[in-house]
Design goal:
- The structure is a single chain.
- The strands form two sheets. Strands 3-2-4-7-1-8-11-10-9 form a nine-stranded mixed sheet, sandwiched between helices. A two-stranded antiparallel ribbon has the order 5-6.
- The protein is globular, with a radius of gyration of 19 Å.
- Helices cover about 35% and strands about 20% of the residues.
- It is built from 13 helices and eleven strands.
- A hairpin with a 4-residue loop joins strand 10 and strand 11 (about 380-390).
- With about 400 residues, it is of the alpha/beta class.
- The chain has helices at about 25-40, 60, 65-75, 90-105, 125-135, 145-160, 165-180, 195-200, 260-275, 290-300, 310-315, 330-335, 340-355; strands at about 5-15, 50-55, 80-85, 110-115, 200-205, 205-210, 215-225, 240-245, 285, 370-375, 380-390.
- The longest helix is centred in the last third of the chain and has 17 residues, at about 340-355.
Length: about 400
């Protein structure tokens, strides 16, 4: 018998992820996502009693204390507020904080808003430097070491043990960006060839430009309700079945296996224990693919496959496969506004299990269980959320 945490996803929305050139800013996008999620939820604004905001860095927005600013913009007064930050895991950590608040009984309806201007506000060079500071600023960021270089070092160890080829890396990019073609909110829906990917500029071996996710702007929002208070019209809403997070040693050199995302394994084990399921119960997943190889490292760490390359090549992770991965396009295709990413993944999974995702990507039979997966650093901080169809006992 499976379990859940008594929390339902009553509203879920994502703005387009792209590079904004229309003069709008992060406050506009947060408002748009929140309004869409609130409308879908049928929860009244006056009934929201907590706001959880995910935003990776004040440097991105030049706005300290964004939770208070957004609460005012959204028309929320006299509510509990919290800003959550954990690098790429920020959005999932906000979902987790909201879930625990609802479980406690002190909150009936919570809004979760994730947002970041990762593309248009600052130059690409400045963003690269800031991402370096999100590791160890002393040993990494201030020495000029980039996130791509660190991810590449980790993946080099992993690819040797798992025999990952350049063709396998290209297959991840091709599949995710092909999925994004059917996602109207995606930043990089593209049709790529293996040759095109292999001839793109080398950034940090083996990663080339087309193996990397883009810098994106955007926002995502959720309305979560305790089951005893959820609107009757949302009886079929997705439910939070289990959550888990864990942290690893910060520096790759201090890890027993720099290619193994062990924090992700710990986080997944915790989430599965709460949900009373095994990893192989997951039928669809949104995986944190900041780089093509990181998707493979994550799949293995999460226990979603015993033969990742065999399953990749057999189509198990493709649309229509046994466990489709990144139907949205993932970070590689849909885009990567960092604070919005984990919230957006959870929103995507909720819509998929409810059967209301984008028509060209929605499976004919909604999955019973879906997984939203993120991490910050080189899987230094891992956070995952398992969702289930509201009709599953």
């Amino acid at each position: 018998m499976s379990s859940d945490l008594g929390v339902s996803v009553c509203g879920a929305a994502l703005t387009p992820y792209n590079r904004r050139k229309d003069g709008s800013n992060f406050r506009d996008w947060a408002f748009d996502a929140f309004e869409q999620a609130l409308t879908l939820s049928t929860v009244e604004l006056r009934d929201i009693d907590a706001l959880f905001v995910s935003s990776e860095s004040d440097f991105f927005t030049y706005q300290l204390n964004p939770a208070s600013v957004l609460a005012s913009d959204l028309g929320l007064r006299d509510v509990e507020i919290l800003r959550c930050e954990g690098g790429g895991a920020s959005g999932q950590l906000a979902v987790h904080a909201a879930t625990r608040a609802l479980q406690s009984g002190r909150v009936k309806h919570a809004a979760v808003v994730g947002v970041d201007p990762s593309a248009s506000h600052l130059s690409a060079e400045t963003m690269t430097s800031l991402y370096g500071y999100s590791f160890d600023a002393w040993t990494d960021g201030m020495t000029g070491l980039s996130s791509t270089a660190l991810y590449a070092l980790s993946f080099q160890t992993f690819r040797e043990s798992c025999k990952v080829s350049d063709k396998d890396l290209a297959a991840i990019v091709i599949q995710n960006r092909s999925n994004a073609l059917d996602n109207p909110n995606a930043h990089l829906g593209r049709t790529h060839t293996v040759d095109e990917i292999d001839q793109s500029p080398l950034i940090a071996s083996p990663y080339r430009r087309l193996h990397c996710s883009p810098l994106s702007d955007g926002a995502a929002a959720l309305i979560l309700s305790h089951d005893t208070h959820k609107p009757q019209a949302r009886r079929g809403a997705a439910k939070i079945a289990g959550i888990g997070s864990a942290v690893d040693t910060l520096h790759l050199g201090a890890r027993a296996d720099p290619g193994n995302f062990s924090a992700k394994t710990s986080a997944m084990n915790s989430a599965c224990k709460e949900a009373a399921i095994l990893p192989d119960t997951i039928e669809i997943a949104e995986i944190y693919d900041a780089y093509a190889g990181a998707q493979l490292q994550s799949i293995q760490a999460l226990g979603l496959s015993e033969s990742i390359i065999g399953d990749l090549n057999s189509g198990r992770f493709a649309p229509g496969g046994q466990c489709p991965i990144n139907l949205s396009g993932g970070l590689l295709g849909q885009g990567a506004p960092v604070g919005a990413t984990g919230v957006g993944q959870t929103a995507t999974c909720a819509l998929l299990v409810e059967g209301t995702y984008h028509p060209a990507l929605q499976p004919d039979q909604p999955p019973r269980y879906a997984l939203a997966d993120t991490h910050g650093g080189i899987c230094t901080t891992a956070a995952v959320t398992i969702l289930k169809n509201g009709e599953v006992a």
